[in-house]
């Protein structure tokens, strides 16, 4: 079947067209503006705050005591949120990964990025385990104190 590989194909229109290619729109580069919206000063948004501090980025930290007054359709699981130039981003891991990529903290190459993702996954598992423990200690759910199971 070498005849399939050798046959000539017509050139695409954009290569044979004699006029100049269309001009790209000029984009104005603006400094990103960040607003971090969360429940309190120490919560799931702490890794995001650490990235902002390490990268030296100015941001507005908004702490909401009652989320129903902020927007009635929000649930507690919607926090933290990042307002990035007017666009809302939810889920703390997504926020932290985006900021890490933006400011060169996500690692160079696929292997280092995989190591960073591993660290994030370990931190999430650890925080889930700690939350389960404290829910049991504080009496929010019943746990087996010997094995740690529900």
Account of the 3D structure:
Helix 3 runs parallel beside helix 5. It is built from 6 helices and 4 strands. Helix 3 links the parallel strand 1 and strand 2. The longest helix is centred in the C-terminal third of the chain and has 29 residues. The protein folds into 2 domains: 76 residues, Glutaredoxin (3-Layer(aba) Sandwich); 43 residues, no CATH class. Strands 2-1-3-4 form a 4-stranded mixed sheet, with helices on one face. By secondary structure, it is an alpha+beta fold.
Topology as H/E string?
A: HHEHEHEEHH
Structural class: alpha+beta
Low-confidence stretches: none
Gross morphology is extended
Strand content: 5-15%
CA-CA gap between termini: 64 Å
Number of domains: 2
- Let me know the CATH homologous superfamily of the largest domain: Glutaredoxin
Helical content (DSSP H or I, runs of 4+): 40-55%
Radius of gyration, in angstroms, nearest whole number: 24 Å
The major sheet is characterized as: 4 strands, mixed
What's the arrangement of secondary structure elements?
Blueprint: H1 2-6, H2 13-16, E1 34-38, H3 46-55, E2 60-63, H4 67-70, E3 81-84, E4 87-90, H5 92-102, H6 109-137
Parallel strand pairs: 1-2
Antiparallel strand pairs: 1-3, 3-4
List keywords for this structure.
150 residues; alpha+beta; Glutaredoxin; 2 domains; 4-stranded mixed beta sheet; 6 helices; 4 strands; 42% helix; 11% strand; extended; Thioredoxin-like_sf; glutathione transferase; GST_superfamily
């Amino acid at each position: 079947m070498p005849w399939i590989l050798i046959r000539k194909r017509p050139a695409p229109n954009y290569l044979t067209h004699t006029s100049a290619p269309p001009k790209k729109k000029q984009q104005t580069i603006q400094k990103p503006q960040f607003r971090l919206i969360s429940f309190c000063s120490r919560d799931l948004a702490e890794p995001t705050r650490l990235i902002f501090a390490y990268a030296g980025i100015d941001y507005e930290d908004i702490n909401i005591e009652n989320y129903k007054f902020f927007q009635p359709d929000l649930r507690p699981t919607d926090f933290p949120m990042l307002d990035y130039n007017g666009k809302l981003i939810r889920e703390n891991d997504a926020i932290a990964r985006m900021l890490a990529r933006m400011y060169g903290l996500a690692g160079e190459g696929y292997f280092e990025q995989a190591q960073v993702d591993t660290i994030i996954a370990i931190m999430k598992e650890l925080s889930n385990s700690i939350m389960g423990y404290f829910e049991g200690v504080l009496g929010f759910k019943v746990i087996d104190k010997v094995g740690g199971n529900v």
